[in-house]
Amino acid sequence: ILFFNSSNHFFLGAIFDESAKKDDEVFRMAVADLNQNEEILQTEKITFSVTFVDGNNPFQAVQEGKVHSEVRTAF
After folding, report:
1. What is the pLDDT of residue 75?
2. Is this model's pTM higher than 0.85 or not?
3. pLDDT at 67
4. Which 3 state secondary structure label does DSSP give 3?
5. Which run of H or of E encompasses 36?
6. What Gene3D superfamilies does the database record attribute to this sequence (predicted)?
């Protein structure tokens, strides 16, 4: 999971194996729950992106992580 903070905005990027559809659903629900809980996040908001990679290609996750990192640090 990648994490970036900018002022009152948090960004999470998750990379899952293509077979991890349930993990994606749990991740999305967790972010939604955090965004709705004013005791945890009073003025902040979390946005996210999810990328699926081929589990047979271990280097794809590394490449995806680099792409997300380069895009977010440019802002």
Report:
1. 44
2. no
3. 64
4. strand
5. helix 21-36
6. 3.40.50.2300
HSE (side-chain half, CA atoms, 13 Å) at 75: 11
Q: Which residues, 6+ apart, have CB-to-CB distance to 11 below 8 Å?
A: 2, 3, 4, 5, 46, 47, 48, 49, 72
In CATH, the number for domain 2-73 is: 3.30.70
Q: What CA–CA distance (Å, rounded) separates 48 from 68?
A: 11
- Contact yes or no for 37/11 (Cβ under 8 A): no
Cβ contacts of residue 39 below 8 Å, gap of 6+? Answer: none
Asked if residues 30 and 41 have their Cβ atoms less than 8 Å apart, the reply is no
